[in-house]
Design a protein that fits this description.
2 copies of one chain form a homodimer. Chain A is of the alpha/beta class. The first copy, chain A, has 12 helices and 12 strands. Chain A has a 6-stranded parallel beta sheet with strand order 2-1-3-4-5-11. A 6-stranded mixed beta sheet of chain A has the order 7-6-8-9-10-12, with helices on both faces. Chain A binds a DNA duplex (16 and 16 nucleotides) through helix 2 and helix 4. Chains A, B: InterPro entries: HTH_LacI (IPR000843), LacI/GalR-like_sensor (IPR046335), Lambda_DNA-bd_dom_sf (IPR010982), Peripla_BP_I (IPR028082).
DNA sequence: TTGAAAGCGCTAACAC
DNA sequence: GTGTTAGCGCTTTCAA
């Protein structure tokens, strides 16, 4: 392993000079600068991050802590993970994956948490490490978070349906007592209240076939043209199937989903959906956690909400 | 930060004794053992992995290097990644994600590579770090690898179709000049040769709608009952749609896919498929890379092939 | 501007 | 069985 000393000898300087060339280039004279840089290249020196971490008490590692059950993991995570890894790398950090909330925290600088439940939050605080939550934190929670604005997303979806001429608008939500589920439903209700339209809210579990059954029983009430705003793409997939057996999409009936990960592109017709902007989300998460890590003082918790956009495809009128 | 010294003082022993309690428990007397263990608990000591890594020249970190384009990433990866992280953690290792084949290798002990192309292989060898490929290595490549047995998988699929009474069996493959694509096709051909059945091979890109179009044009040639063996679940999804418009599934026509990740459960009817056994695959990968890391000598490359099983669902006759 | 010394927390090698 | 010494590769004092 090539180390500072090897470079120092090659350049006939002390290792401190070499170290300074890397960490404090302004403190070293131009001649030595050049000399050292040549030597670094010549011997193929790469700084040892471990030694650096030991002396700096900083690891340049951020952990992605996934608290959700592995079996229920949505394909979302692959993209998010990769984007996070990429963004962190640009800042000189490395991404590590863990499923264990109790894993040691000495070898990391910060934690990005996903799939958490309310009861995890106090444990997370006790860890005494910078934390950024993926998913909006409860109002009284002193942790920072980044989330898509669920209510704004469904508001956009509902308004879009209205704008496209659908007046009989249903909402098929998640029968789940979680903030994001409630916020999405609230988005629908807010817009329908504003437009003074009839509110039709139904709930189901997040499975295509359950949504299919549910909507099949609703079809005869439709006052065409009808629109169906769905809490997730999975639900939308089932809705699409149910509706398609009887009505024309998008003429008689429009369907919009939420997530925009993978499923939306597999449906027939392709699904119009509210897309989670993972590129932006991961950027914000990384900026968030790094500012916490690199700040001298303890930052106030910062809760970022990102308003998602609609991706128009084939399941809604143009 | 609590360190060895703090524990040593608390227990009135030297730090070496504490170190030994952790790393070589057999070399320390029972009394001190107890004493030290109490002290460790009392002060809440957690070994500093960074210091450990520095002195041992071992980082206890394995990198997952994803060479595939982010945008084409299949949802597969989330599950694989999580399983890998989990298995590695059991062995005391940590999983890190990287997309950069040239990233420094001093802070890691080994690399698991996915989405590689032939031209990456020489770079990987030059890294001089233990490497395990996900996906079968070319025969002359001196790197270890783990892969699902693609040929055996499609052989099972084809034989299953034959066994269920389908005699007119098509294969819809990938128009991709990659080993796994060729192996899958070979699996179909091998079984059809053995059964002396008519060989009908078609190829398409990995998109549902392309497969749909392709098969729609084939339908009129079917000699029912017909079976369609598909190289991927995405293809199978399109095939399902095309066939469904005309024939009954699975009575007139059976369809089987390959991968068993996510898509298969979303189709209607649910897709019978050859499932990639990710739990096993990740176990083998981890065992593989760790044996390389922990072996004193350089191991011969080891190529593991895992025969996948069929998950019978609704798109084939019972 | 540059260098020498000390030490981050740990363990292997060697003494006792 | 236990302690002492040295050093992994680096950076932050502090002195020149």
């Amino acid at each position: 392993m090539v180390n500072l000393n090897d470079v120092a000898q090659k350049a006939h300087v002390s290792k401190m000079t070499v170290s300074r060339v890397i960490n404090h280039p302004d403190q070293v004279s131009p001649e030595l600068m050049r000399l050292v840089q040549q030597a670094i290249k010549a011997v193929g020196y790469v700084p040892n991050q471990v030694a650096r971490a030991l002396v700096n008490q900083r690891q340049y590692v951020v952990r992605f802590l996934l608290l959700e059950d592995v079996s229920t993991v949505e394909p979302n995570y692959a993209k998010l993970l990769i984007r996070l890894a990429n963004n962190l790398q640009k800042k000189g950090y490395t991404l590590e994956i863990s499923l264990d909330i109790m894993a040691e925290t000495q070898s990391i600088d910060g934690i990005i948490v996903s799939g958490w439940r309310t009861e995890d939050l106090s444990k997370l605080q006790a860890l005494d490490v910078p934390v950024t939550l993926y998913g909006a934190a409860p109002t009284k929670c002193p942790l920072s978070s980044v989330d898509v604005d669920n209510q704004a997303g469904i508001e956009k979806a509902t308004e879009y349906m209205w704008r496209q001429g659908y007046r009989d608008i249903y909402y098929i939500g998640l029968s789940l007592d979680l903030p994001f589920a409630r916020q999405r439903e609230a988005g629908y209700r807010a817009v329908m209240a504003k437009k003074d339209g009839r509110v039709s809210v139904y709930q189901t579990e997040n499975h295509a076939h359950l949504a299919d059954t549910l909507v099949t029983n609703l079809l005869h009430n439709f006052q065409l043209p009808t629109a169906i705003v769905c809490a997730t793409d999975r639900i939308a997939l089932g809705v699409l199937r149910a509706v398609q057996r009887v009505y024309h999409i998008p003429r008689d009936c429009g369907v919009i989903g939420f997530d925009g990960v993978f499923i939306d592109q597999l449906t027939q017709p392709q699904l119009t959906t509210v897309r989670q902007p993972f590129a932006l989300i991961s950027e914000k998460i990384v900026a968030q956690i790094i500012s916490q890590i690199e700040s001298e003082i303890i930052l106030e918790p910062n809760n970022i909400s990102i308003s998602p956009d609609i991706v128009v495809r084939e399941s809604t009128r143009l």
